[in-house]
Amino acid sequence: MSAEHSALVQVARAAIPAVVSITTQERPDASGEPQKGIGSGFIISPDGYVLTAAHVVDDAESFTVTLLDARGWPEEVHATLVGSDAQTDCALLKVETDRKLPSLQLGSARDIEVADWVVVIGSPYGLDRSVSVGVISAKGRTDIIPGSRTSFVDFLQTDAAINPGNSGGPVLALDGKVIGIANAVNTTGQGIGFAIPIDVARAVVDDLRSHGRVRRGWLGVSVVDLTPDVARSAGRPSYSGVMVSDVVAGSPAQRAQALRWRVALSGPGNPLRVHVTRSGRPVWVAITPESMPTVASSPARDGLHPGIQSGASGTGGSGKGADADR
Hints:
The chain is mainly β. Helix content is 13%, strand content 38%. It contains five helices and 21 strands. The radius of gyration is 20 Å and the shape is globular.
């Protein structure tokens, strides 16, 4: 047995007890028939908090989590929705149990590199605790918009198999720590899946636990990715970062400019120092985000096919054609 194989086995064996299958009971469809969906999740604390993808629990009225009991047998328990955030596609469930549950340690996607091995565990097509392995194919995919949802996420890309039912399950590095949350798959290609960097979830989970929603900082700017074409048109020497394209009158951004999701996830009232370029000169500016104005929205459901494995069969993907998995 090779060292690589042994490491993958150890990661999967240690993580499987903390990975759960999530069955949702959704609102009846137009025909009046109740709908079910299946997704994945993982336990992040021994007292029963479960992290998953928001689109797994969207429109659901009840949640059943299948975990492993002390003997290693499947055990179905009721779960309650603690909080959900459509823009980062993260959600937090809570299961009630009298025992301490196995949990996974959260790492950082900053510690993973392209071509590093990863392990994905979930319930594709309802097949509980299935394991797939692969490598990180790319990082920082900003042009992936599963189901046309507005998002602050720079996705990880992997060739590890992600199928309907995997969404919400962990993507693990070889040290056993979670570095991503399985989220979407490109249905037009083989081996092209996407995951939310766990750093995004780490930034919102405390708000979800305490408030049931994410309290975002807001500057009042619109930004565009600094692609090579945009950088050339703006006369920039590189295309790293984003470019401010518009400023809302009366907003904090009238006094300074800053970057996108880091600011949004910083929380209102937290002062920031931001490095920007003005008139060709690099400068540091100080700014304090305010609470993001509430805007009524209804995130697209990706054209998900209703049924026991609603998911990557969806037709609503945009950007690079990624469909939200479920």
